[in-house]
UniProtKB/TrEMBL annotation, chains A, B:
Domain (Mannose-6-phosphate isomerase type II C-terminal): residue spans on this chain: 362-475
UniProt keyword annotations, A-Z: GTP-binding, Isomerase, Nucleotide-binding, Nucleotidyltransferase, Transferase
SUPFAM superfamilies: Nucleotide-diphospho-sugar transferases, RmlC-like cupins
Presence of the UniProt keyword GTP-binding in the record: yes
Descriptive protein name: mannose-1-phosphate guanylyltransferase
CDD domains: cupin_PMI_typeII_C, GDP-M1P_Guanylyltransferase
Superkingdom of the source species: Bacteria
Catalytic activity: alpha-D-mannose 1-phosphate + GTP + H(+) = GDP-alpha-D-mannose + diphosphate
Species this chain originates from: Methylobacterium terricola
Domain MannoseP isomerase/GMP-like beta-helix, first and last residues per copy: 309-357
Family membership: Belongs to the mannose-6-phosphate isomerase type 2 family.
Lineage summary: Bacteria, Pseudomonadati, Pseudomonadota, Alphaproteobacteria, Hyphomicrobiales
Domain Nucleotidyl transferase: 10-293
C-alpha cells in the first residue's frame, strides 16, 4: 500500500430540510442542526468532528442552503472546525451538489480524492468510519466511485440497497471491496428480507471518488448537471466567509439525486461493506432505535416524567415539563410552541402531518420560535394585538443592521451585558438594568461591543409588528434591504 | 302540595383542589374554575347558573378556600351571580363546610331548606336538576336529609353507591323518594355490577335538608364538627365581600366528610332517584365520557391537529399547537408550561403522577404560569439568571399593593390602556407605548384608573426575582405584608 499521503477531501452535504422530525426539525432549523442522537451536539457537528484526523482528511467543505449559512458557520465555530462553505441559492437535490464538490476539489488537484458525506446521519463508531474511508481509498484511486455498503440490521423499507458483485480490481486485497452488481430502490418488507438473504447492503449515501472520475461520469450521464455546476462556480461570489454559487446558473441545474444521475448508470461503482452502527435518523422511530435507553426501554431528553411507560421516546426540548402515563411505544416531542404525540410505528407519518399543517397555514409547520441570525438569535416570548415581546441575544462583536420601522416603536431593556445603541446618529452605551426607547421611524442600530453575550428584552408597540417591517439601511452581513 | 313558597338555600362547596385533571387543574387553579366540560364556562359557573330560577332558589352561598376567593368572586361576577362567600382558612373536608352552611342558613330561619352542591360536577340537563331539587323538597321538609341518587350508566368503581329502601314517609307521592337502606363505599367492578343489578344508585354528593335537622344530626353524630363550625362563624370577620371564618376555631374542626360524619350514621336519610346525565369529572377519561365528540370519537379543544387518531381527548389550553398521530384512546393535554400524555384507561393515575412531581419539586405540579389576583392577573413570559419578564393585566379600577423590593429593579412598558404609577410618592400617568422605571428599594404602586384593561410588560432585573421579595406597605385587598 502506498496511499498514505492521499488526503481525502470531505464534502458535507448539508442542504436537507427534513420535516419528518417535526416539531424539533423545521424548515427554519432542519434536523442536521439539532442535537438529536446525542445531547449537545448536532449530527452536522458530529459529522464534521468525524473528519478531525489530519492524517486522513483535508480541510472539509460544506455545501448548504443559503438560509442555513449562519447556522452552519456558528455550529462549525462551536466545534472549532474550519471549512469552506458553499451556498446553494435553491434546492436541487444531491447531483448538482456532488458536481460542485468535484469541481471545487478539481480546481486544486484534478485527481483529488473527494468524500461525500450526508450531514444528518448518526454513526456509532467514528474510528471504524475513519478506517472505512481509508480502506475505500485504493478503489477510488484506481478509478472507482466507491460507496459504503452498510450491513443491514433489519429488513428496512426506508433505505435503498446495494447488491455487491465480484471483488473489485485494483482495490486493497483485504478490504472486501466489490463491484456493484445493482443499486436497488427502497423495497417492500418481503423483498427487503430477501435482499438481506442475498447479501445486499444498505446504501448510506457516502461516496468516495477521484474528482476527475466523477466529472467524467457526470459528463457522460448528466451533462446538464455538470454544466450548471460549472457555471454556478464560475459566477460564484465570495461573501464574508461564504462562496455563494451563481444564482442563475445553479437554478438551471436539473433537480436530481446523484444516485439516479450517476450511480445507477455508471460502470465504475464499487462498494466497501462496513459494519459500524448507522442510522439516517429518518423518523423519530429511527432515533429511538439508535438512542441510549433506560431499563424500561425509554429514550428521554429534557424535563420529562414518566409513569407506567415503556419503549418510548420522550424529548422535551424547551422549558415545558412533559409527562407520559400508561403508554408503550410512543413518541412525544415537545417544543416551546408545538407538541407531537405519535405511536412509534406511525412516526413516519409526521411528514404528512406537517404538510397538512402547512396547508392550514399554521406558522409552526415551518418556523421555530427561536430564530438564528448572523449576530445571534431572537425568540418571541409574548404577542398581543398591538405589541410583541422578544428576547434578543447578541454575540460579542455582533452588529444588527442599521434599520427603521414604519409601524412600531421599541423599548429595549438590557438584562445582561452591555449594548451600544445608535438612535438617529447618537451613539450611547446601555448597561444591564438600563433601557433605551426607539420611537417609530427612528434610524437605529444595536451592537454588542463587549466580551460576553448581550441579552435584552425588546417590547414592540404599534399597529403592526411583523418581521417585514424592517427597513435595512446598512448591514455588515450583506443582507438585502427591506 | 303546599311547599310552593319554600325557597331552597343553595350552598356550593367550592374548596376542592383536584390534581387528577392536571396539568389544567392545579392547586393554584383547581378544576372547578376551569372550562372543562364546556368551552368558556367552568363547572363552578355552570353550577351557579343552574340555580338561577328565583321561584326555586334563594341567593346562593359559596364556601371556598381562602386562596380561591378572588377567583370565586371573579367567576361569579362574570356570570352576573350574587352570592355570600364564606372562606375556609384551611381544608377540613365536607362535614365542617356543611355544618357552616346549616348554621349560616339557620341564622335567618332555623327551618330553612339548604341544598349542598359540589362545584366541580357536570350535569347534562339543568331543567331536570331543578325539578329534582323541587321534588326532593317534601322529604326534606318532613325532616329527612335528602340525597340525589343518580341512575348508574356503567359499573363505576369511582363512585359511592346508595341502596334505596322503602318509600319515604311524608315525601311527595309520585316523586319516587325512598329511605336509604345503606350507603356503600366505592366498590370493585364485580361488586359495582352487582349493586346496579340490585337497584343501587350513585351518591352524587348533593344533600337537601332543613337546617335544624342537619344541626340535630351533627350534634348527635359529630358534635366536634358542629362546635368548631359554630365557633368559626362566631369569630368570623367580614372582609370586603367575604366572610372569613375564624382561623383558630375552624382549624379545630375534625377533617371528615359529611358522608362519614352524618349520612352513614343518621336514620333520617332519604334518596330521590334522578336520571339526568351527570359526571364528577374525576379524571380526563370521565371528561371524555361526557364530552361532545366528533365522528372519530375525538373530543378536541384549542389548537389541535390529528392524523389517524380515534376516541381520544386532546385539549390544547394555551398557545401551543398540539398534534397526535396514529394513536387511539389517549388523553393529551397541553398548557403553556406542562404536557400530559396518557392512555384514557390510565388517566386515573394522574394524581399519582402529580404527587411524584411534587416530590421532585417541579413547580408545575401546583402552580400555573397564569396567576389570578384581586386586581387582575400576571403571567411569567420569560426568565433568566438575573431577570424575569411578566405580562401584567390590571382590571379597570384595580390597585396593586403599595410595595417595594429589596433585590430587583423593574421596568414597566405599557402596551394597552393607561397606568397610574406611584414612585416614592410621585404619581404620574403612563400611557400606551410609555415606560416607567422603578429602582431597587423604591416604594411603588400600580393602578388602572381607566375604563379598559391595562396591560403592561414588566422586566425585572436583579439578583433575585422571587414572589416573596414583595414587601407590602398597604393593600386595598387586605393581603398580609411580606
Amino acid at each position: 500500500m502506498s496511499d498514505a499521503g492521499d488526503l481525502i477531501h470531505p464534502v458535507i452535504l448539508c442542504g436537507g430540510s427534513g420535516t419528518r422530525l417535526w416539531p424539533a426539525s423545521r424548515e427554519s432549523f432542519p434536523k442536521q442542526f439539532i442535537p438529536l442522537a446525542e445531547p449537545g451536539r448536532s449530527s452536522f457537528q458530529a459529522t464534521a468532528a468525524r473528519l478531525s484526523d489530519p492524517a486522513t482528511f483535508a480541510r472539509p467543505a460544506v455545501i448548504t442552503a443559503n438560509d442555513a449559512r449562519f447556522l452552519v458557520a456558528e455550529q462549525l465555530a462551536q466545534g472549532g472546525v474550519e471549512a469552506d462553505i458553499l451556498l446553494e441559492p435553491c434546492r436541487r437535490d444531491s447531483a448538482p451538489a456532488v458536481a460542485v464538490a468535484a469541481l471545487h476539489a478539481a480546481s486544486h488537484d484534478p485527481q483529488a480524492l473527494v468524500l461525500i458525506l450526508p450531514a444528518d446521519h448518526a454513526i456509532g463508531d467514528d474510528a471504524a468510519f475513519g478506517e472505512a474511508a481509508r480502506a475505500a481509498r485504493a478503489g477510488a484511486r484506481a478509478g472507482h466511485i466507491m460507496t459504503l455498503g452498510i450491513a443491514p440490521t433489519h429488513p428496512s423499507t426506508a433505505y435503498g440497497y446495494i447488491q455487491p458483485g465480484s471483488p473489485l480490481p485494483g482495490a486493497a486485497g483485504g478490504s472486501g471491496a466489490r463491484t456493484v452488481a445493482r443499486f436497488l430502490e427502497k423495497p417492500d418488507a418481503t423483498r427487503a428480507a430477501g435482499l438481506i438473504g442475498e447479501g445486499a447492503l444498505w446504501n448510506g449515501g457516502y461516496f468516495l471518488f477521484r474528482a476527475d472520475v466523477m466529472l467524467d461520469e457526470l459528463e457522460t450521464h448528466a451533462p446538464a448537471v455538470l454544466a450548471a455546476a460549472r457555471a454556478a462556480l464560475a459566477t460564484a461570489v465570495r461573501d464574508l466567509d461564504f462562496v455563494r454559487l451563481g444564482v442563475e446558473a445553479f437554478g438551471q441545474a436539473p433537480q436530481i439525486s446523484i444516485d439516479y444521475a450517476v450511480m445507477e448508470r455508471t460502470e465504475r461503482a464499487g462498494v466497501l461493506p462496513v459494519g459500524f452502527p448507522w442510522s439516517d435518523i429518518g423518523t423519530w422511530g429511527a432515533l429511538w432505535d439508535i438512542a441510549a435507553r433506560d431499563g424500561d426501554g425509554n429514550a428521554l431528553r429534557g424535563r420529562v416524567a414518566l409513569r407506567g411507560t415503556r419503549n418510548s421516546l420522550v424529548h422535551s426540548t424547551g422549558e415545558i415539563l412533559t409527562t407520559v402515563v400508561g403508554l408503550d411505544d410512543v413518541v412525544v416531542v415537545t417544543t416551546d410552541d408545538a407538541v407531537l404525540v405519535a405511536s412509534r410505528e406511525a412516526a413516519g407519518e409526521v411528514k404528512g402531518l406537517v404538510e397538512g399543517l402547512r396547508r392550514r397555514g399554521e406558522p409552526e409547520a415551518d418556523a421555530h420560535r427561536l430564530m438564528y441570525r448572523p449576530w445571534g438569535s431572537y425568540q418571541r416570548i409574548d404577542i398581543g394585538a398591538r405589541f410583541q415581546v422578544k428576547r434578543i441575544t447578541v454575540k460579542p462583536g455582533g452588529r444588527l443592521s442599521l434599520q427603521k420601522h414604519y409601524h412600531r416603536a421599541e423599548h429595549w431593556v438590557v438584562v445582561r451585558g452591555t449594548a451600544e445603541v445608535t438612535v438617529d446618529g447618537v451613539v450611547r452605551l446601555v448597561h444591564e438594568n438600563e433601557a433605551a426607547y426607539l420611537p417609530i421611524g427612528c434610524v437605529h442600530r444595536l451592537v454588542n461591543p463587549g466580551k460576553i453575550p448581550l441579552e435584552l428584552i425588546e417590547v414592540q408597540v404599534g399597529s403592526y409588528t411583523g418581521e417585514d417591517d424592517i427597513i435595512r439601511i446598512e448591514d455588515v452581513y450583506g443582507r438585502e434591504g427591506g
